Amino acid sequence: MATESRSVNRAEAVDERPTHASDEQLVALAQGAATVAQRQEAASRLLERYRDRVYIWCLKHLRDHESALDAAQEVLISAYRNLASFGGRARFSSWIFAIARNRCLSELRRPPIAIDADADCDRIPATTGDPEQLLLEQQGEEALLRLITEQLDPIEQEALWLRCNEQMPVDVITVTLGIVEASGARAVLQRARRKLRNAMARQANEREEREW
Amino acid sequence: MVTERCHPHETLAAISELAPGDLRRTHLDGCPRCRARLVAYRAFMAGDLPSGLDLDPSILGAARSQLDAVMTREIYGTDLLPAGRSGLHTRLVNLAAKSWRPALAAAAVLVLVFGLKTNQVPLNLPLPSPGTESLLRGTVERSQTDYPLRVEPGPDKGTWHLAWEAPERTTASAVVLYDTDLAEVARLDAGEAEEFLLQSEMISTPQSIAFVRVVFAVNGDEIGRSQARTLTF
Questions:
Q1: Is B128 inside a domain boundary?
Q2: Could you tell me if residue B24 is inside a domain?
Q3: Inter-chain contact B63–A31, Cβ cutoff 8 Å?
Q4: Same domain as B103, residue B143
Q5: How far apart are CA A39 and CA B78, in angstroms?
Q6: Of B13, B63, B151, the CB nearest to A69
Q7: What CATH architecture is A131-211?
Q8: Chain A residue with minimal CA distance to B33?
Q9: Inter-chain contact B230–A84, Cβ cutoff 8 Å?
Q10: For the segment A124-134, what is each residue's pLDDT rounded down to a tens digit?
Q11: Are B80 and B165 within one domain?
Q12: How many CB atoms lie within 10 A of CB B88?
């Protein structure tokens, strides 16, 4: 109740013309403006700002106009339907990005999951609710993170993580990271894979020697 | 150093702007998982298409129209605040929306057709305010290509060397800097040159910079722009 009245007050304080309002002001208006029409107008303006970004993000990942359109539609509708509960602890842009990212990842991670030839990302997301299994997987991820941090240079780290964890296509990684090598992110990923493989082999040898 | 406690990705953009000594910032700088998520967020905000992905502008126009139609139906058919407003008022709003759906669908078709023919405004980053009037009137032809922009560390700390190839008719270029929300932070005149040494002293709030782009103009009218690149000080 207190939250709602605060939202109303914030909404009343902002510019009446939502076109010039910040995201935060539009969120406040969408949540607490005096009339339905004002709330609808604010929500419409806010989501329109992110329409292109959401569609392009989905297109980048899903590589198909129809799939991207479906996904973008779901993201925008989901954002609108959950806007009333958006607490404003993070930026609205971060929040809608999280929705778009999760939507694309769930689409890409639909089984069967193919092992990517571009990188060593054979870590399949948890499909089990078994706490012990989840803990083991988490520990494995922490170990992998440590290995990546120790063995790879920053651009290799980011490229590998974007590929494996964010499921970002190789050409998008090339552009996103501004990689100027002729083969783009593909070469960086292959180099990272080679380094990791060697490091893992070294670790395995050391373990064996210790055990003997 | 990587720890088990990575930041929620909603907070990464804000954390990246903290002072270098801050513990959360230190974690972000050392953690590939958090850094990759931040890179992904910034890529989302930049909204650029990879150059290899061929997208006909008419497809983008169609996508916009379809998404607008869906959102119009969604937003104007419902109210965000069901509590206390779920009675007659909401029913009337929904009824009104239903009765208008055929008209909305017809409008969406018109928007789609119109959008396919006239979609000339490129994506995302806002058009510059000066000199855009004739562009919007259609008297100046705007390039649909995002020209390549090279961004490399400059000779000194806090400097970046930018290089590009401007379109043929360009009479002046400007380096435009944006924050993480793509709000324009600074616009620096590059004249007729095709390179620029960007120094942090040129900007009042260099720590807020997240993206850079070059815009090209003929006699004050923008005719094209470069790719957007991430850039931080």
A1: no
A2: yes
A3: no
A4: no
A5: 10
A6: B63
A7: Orthogonal Bundle (1.10)
A8: A161
A9: no
A10: 344 444 555 65
A11: no
A12: 8
Q: Any chain A CB within 8 A of the CB of B66?
A: yes
Flag if A40 and B79 touch (Cβ within 8 Å).
yes
pLDDT score at B11: 81
Mean pLDDT, residues A110-127: 44
Question: Model pTM greater than 0.95?
Answer: no
From the list B2, B14, B51, which residue is nearest A146 (CB)?
B2
Of B14, B40, B80, nearest to A43 by CB-CB distance is: B80
Domain boundaries, chain A: 2-108, 131-211
Q: Which helix (H) or strand (E) holds A95?
A: helix A92-108
Residue linked to tokens 């969406």:
B108
For residue A72, pLDDT over 80 is answered with yes
Rounded CA gap, A34 and A110, in Å? 43
Fold of A2-108: Rna Polymerase Sigma Factor; Chain: A (1.10.1740)
B232 versus A81: the higher-pLDDT residue is A81
The answer to whether residue B125 sits within a structural domain is no
Facing B50 at nearest CB: one of A68, A97, A175 = A175
Q: How far is A22 from chain B (nearest CA, A)?
A: 10
What are the CA-CA distances from residue A98 to residues A142, B129, B217 (Å)? 22, 31, 36
Can you read off the two tokens belonging to residue B119? 């979609």
Parent domain of B113: 57-118
pLDDT of residue B80: 54
Q: What is the pLDDT of residue A5?
A: 39
Contact B229 A178 (CB under 8 A): yes
Q: Any CB–CB contact under 8 A between B104 and chain A?
A: no
pLDDT at residue A47 in the model: 95
Quote the ipTM score.
0.70
Q: Which residue of B has its CA nearest to A100?
A: B44
**Which residue, among A184, A53, A170, has the nearest Cα to B46 in the 3D structure?**
A53
Q: Which residues of chain B have pLDDT under 70?
A: 1-5, 49-55, 78-146, 180-182
- Sequence-distant (6+) residues with CB within 8 A of A109 are A125, A167
Residue B156 is classified by DSSP as: S
Please tell me the distance in Å from B103's CA to the nearest CA on chain A.
18
For chain B, give the mean pLDDT. Answer: 71
Q: What is the pLDDT of residue B29?
A: 87
CA of A205, closest CA in chain B: separation in Å?
Answer: 24
